[in-house]
Amino acid sequence: MNVLIVEDELVIAQRLERLLRQEGGTMWTRIERCATLDEAEIRVAKETVDVVFLDLNLNGLDGFDLLADSAAQAFHTVVVSAHTDRALEAFEIGVLDFIGKPFGAERVRKTIERLRGARPEHPATALPVRTAGRIHFIGIDTIAYVRAAGSYAELVLHDGTVYAHRKPLDKLLSVLPAGFIRIHRAYLIRLSDITALHAREGSRYAVTLASGEELPVGRTRVAEVRRLLGG
Amino acid sequence: MILLSLLLLAGVPADTVRYQVGDDVRWSEPAWDDSEWKRAFIRDVPDAPAILWIRLDIDTGLDTEAVETLGIGTAGLVAREVYWDGVLIGQAGRVGTDASSEHVGPLDALHRIPDSLSMPGRHVVALRMSSFHRPAGTSDLRLEVEVGDYTALSAEPFRAVGLPLVFLGAFVLVALYYLALFAADRRRLPYLLTALLCIAVAALLLAEGWRHFAVYPYDWHAVRLRTIEALTCIVGFLLVGTFTSQFEVPKQAVILASTAAGVLAPVVFLSDHETGTFAAFTWALVFAAGVTAWAVWQEAAGARWAFGGVLTCLVTLGITQLDFMEGLFFPAFGVLLAGLLTSLGLQTREARRQHEHALASAARLEAELLKKQLQPHFLMNTLTSIMEWVETDPQTGARALEAAAGELRTLSEVSGESLIPMRRELALCRAHLDVMGLRRGISFTLDDAGVNPETPIPPAVLHTLVENAVTHNAYPPGSVVFTLREIVTGTSRMLTLRTPLAGTRRRTRAEGGGLRYVRARLEESTPGRWSLSAGKKNGEWVTSITWITS
Asked: What is the ipTM score, two decimals?
C-alpha cells in the first residue's frame, strides 16, 4: 500500500510516518511526505497512491474545500486534524477515517484496521464526484446501485442518472453505509432494495430490485446474499 | 349677574387716576371737583418730594349682595391713608411731610370697607401719600389699587404663589437629583452646574414670591429687587456655563468672560433694577442660544433639545418684553430646563453607549487574543509535536514546552493591556518563532536592528503578523529571517515587517482574522491615527504600520 502524508508540520509528519511504520510494518510499500497541496497534487498524479493522510489546515487554508476533492479521488482519504469538531462532516463525504490531533500509536492502529477493511465510524451520507472540473455531492439515498466501470465506479441513481466516481468498488464499499452489500464483482446494492433472488439458467443468479430492475449475483456471493435476505 | 359677581370676586383693579401734589383734607371728599387735576395711568403717577394725592372712581356694580364684605387692596412705595367716599378706612405707615415725620408702612395693605359704606354704585377712592423713603433703583411708585371681595382679596397672595411653589418643588428636586448624579460621577461637571442652576432658579422663585410670602416695609423693596437682579445674573451665568461645559465648547474662558461682562453690564449701568434684570437675562439667553446653536452645528447629542429650549425662552421674552420677568419667566424657564435636561439625558445615554462599546470592544479584543492561542490548530499541533518529542527526543520536547509556556504566559499577561513596550512584544514574537521553528524544523530569526525596545505598541500586533507569516508560507526546513524596522519622523512612527514568501501558489483570504485583530487593536489604542498597508514586494511580504503618537 502506498501512503502519502500531506502535513506542513515537520515533526507531526515524522511522527505519523514513524507510527505507521511501527504499527503497519510490512503493509506499506512506500510512505512519502509532502508539506504543500501543490506538491501533493503532483505526487498523486505521478504515482499510485492508495491512501492520503491530509492535514486540513495546510498553510493557513481551510482544507474543507480540498477535502471533498480528495474524497472524490480514487485513493482513500484519512483526515489528520486538530479540528475534531468537524470529524462528522468529513465522514459524511466519505473519508475513511479522521485522526484527531494529538494522536498516539493506538489511534494510528485503528486507522490501519479500517484500511484493512473495517467499516468507518460514520458512513458517508453523500459522495463527492468530480465532473467537468467541479465537485458534486451525490446523496447516498439517491443512489440505486453502484457498478464497476474499469478501475472506476459508476453511481446509478434512482432517476437513472449515472455519475462516474474515481474510487474502485472495494474502496467505495468501505465508506458506504452498512446497508450496501456486494452482490457481484461489479455491483454494490442496498440490501433493503432487493425484492427477490432468482436462479437463472446455467446456474446463474439474479436479484430483482424494488424498481423492477434485475442485477446479476456472483456465484461465490449467492450464499451470503441468501443468508442476508433471511433464508 | 353671575358674570358680574365673578368680576367682583376677582376684584376691580384701577387704571386711570387723577393726581395732585399738595395737601388738603377736603380732597378726600367725593364731591370735590378734581377736574383740574392731572390724569395718568396709575403706574405712571410721578413721584414728588411732597405729599401727593390720587383720586379714582370705582363702580362696584349694581349688586353687592353677592359679596359679604368689600375690601380695598393698595400697594406702593408710599406711606398712605386710604379714603372711601371721604371716610378714612385705613392707613399703611404714616404720611409725613419729610423723611423724619413719615413712617414707612408695608408695601402691600388690605383694608376692610365698612358695610355701611358699601352700597352698590359709584364710589370715590382717595389716597393721601408720601414717599420720602422710596429706595434708589426703583423707577416709579408702583401704585396699585384694587377693590373687591375682602375674603377673595386676602386669599390672593396664596393664589399667586401656588404655581411658583410647584415650580420651586420641581427645581429643588431636579437640583437634588443632579447633585446625587454628580456625587456618583464626579467627572461630569455639567451635572453639578445643572444642580447649581436649579438651586439658583429656586432661589429666584423665592425672591420673586417673597412679596406674597411675607409683607415687608416698602423701603425694603429695593433689597428684594437687588436680590432678584443678582440671582438672575447667577442664573444667566450658570445657564451659559452649563451649556458650555456640557457641549465642551472651545474657548470656554472667553465665552464665560463675555457672558459675565454681558450680564453684569446692565446691572452696573442701568439704575433701574427691573430693566437691569431683564437686560442681564436677555444677554445670558443670547449667549446660551449661541452656544447651543454651535452644538447643533457640531451635531452634538441632545443639542437640538437644548437649543429648542433656549429659543422658546428667547422668543417668549421677545414677545412679552419687560413683563417677562413677572409673568412667563418661570414657565418659559421650565421649558428651557426641560430642553437642557433632555439634552443632558441624551448625552449621558450616548456617553454610556460609547463607554459600553469601548468596554465591549476591549473585552472582545482580549478574548480574541486568548482564543487565538487556544485555537485547536495552534494548541493541538504543539501538543502533537510535544508528544513526538516525549517519545523520541525529550530534550527538544522540554525546550519546546518552555517556549510554548513562555508565549502563553506573556500573552495572558498582556492581553488586557492596550499598549505594551516593544521588548515584551518582541519576546512574544521570539517565543512563537521558537515553538514554530521546532515544530517545523526551521531556524527562525527576527532581525530587529534599530528598533527602540521601549516603543509602546498594542499587544500581539507584531506577534499576529509574525504568526501569519509562519502559517501562510511553506518554508522548507532551513533558516528564515524576518526583518523588523522602525522609522520615527516627528510624532509619526512606522514599523515595517518583511517576511520572505515561500511555497504555495494558493493564496489565502485577502484579510484573515489576524489582520482584523491588528486593525482593531490599532484603532483601540490610537483611534483614527493609524494606517496599515500590506503587500508583496521583491519576493517578500511587507507589512507597514504607521501611527501618530500623542
From this structure: 0.80
